[in-house]
Amino acid sequence: MKSKTAPHMEGFAGWPKPALSFLRGLHKDNSKAYFEANRETYEKACREPLLALVAELERELGDEWESKIFRLNRDLRFSKDKRPYKEQVSAVFTSSKHASGYYLQLSYEALYTGAGSYEMGPDQLTRYRDAVAGKPGEKLVQILAKLKKDGFGTSEPTFKRVPTGYPADHPRADLLKGSSAWANRTFKPAPWLHTREALTRIRDTWREAKPLTDWVDTHVKPSTAPTRHR
Question: Which residues make beta-bridge pairs with 66?
Fold first, then answer.
């Protein structure tokens, strides 16, 4: 669902300092009482800047991309963890024409941003494994090595064993044991977070991850299976 941004909303100018104070407080006291007492700070310092940021990123990505801003309220129906709120504000960008996507998240500890395919549908996972096992897998190794060298975190193996149908001693066994093709950067809060440099860092992360998103779009392709996001 595309984000609904008020027409009069100003451009993103960074997250004000009270955003981190609110999120740190929520981490210490994750309760309805705390949230209600600080609701205005949440709206003004966290949610409104996120709406402005998402609106700018939507325009840059283009009309084929849609954004989803995640609710702060947690779904407690099937969870043993009964904390009522998530302790971060976040958004994801997806497109029916792309297998790759983009994600950003602000907590009191860090700004996290990533790109690629975080969770593949069954049909995508088959295509991913076939590509990894074949010639395209060699290119993926090079892409991931360059991203790691440049300070990115990348996907770790999900499964203990190489999936059935692929050699257990395959040279790219670790990639075959994975279920995502994802790269991310984590930035610790600093004065730049309260300026438009936060937008620049997100944009730069996604741009530098383009070799990975291109690989995913080419070899994994969009899925018709439902996917979930964090």
Answer: 94
Whole-prediction pTM value?
Answer: 0.91
> Which regions of the chain does DSSP assign to beta strands (E)?
66-69, 88-94, 101-107, 111-117, 153-154, 181-187
Domain segments of the chain as ranges: 17-219
CA distances to 41, 77, 143 from 53, in Å: 17, 31, 28
Q: Give the span between the Cα atoms of 42 and 56, in whole angstroms.
A: 20
Torsion of CA 10, 89, 40, 20, to 10 degrees: -100
Write out pLDDT tens, residues 13-71: 999 999 999 999 999 999 999 999 999 999 999 999 999 999 999 999 999 999 999 99
The CATH number of domain 17-219 is 3.30.930: yes
**pLDDT tens, position by position, 181-215:** 999 999 999 999 999 999 999 999 999 999 999 99
- Measure Cα distances from 105 to 141, 146, 151, 199, 218 in Å: 27, 24, 18, 12, 27
Rounded mean pLDDT, 88-98:
97
Q: What percent of the chain is helix, strand and coil (3-state, nearest 5)?
A: 45, 15, 40
Q: How far apart are CA 213 and CA 114, in angstroms?
A: 11
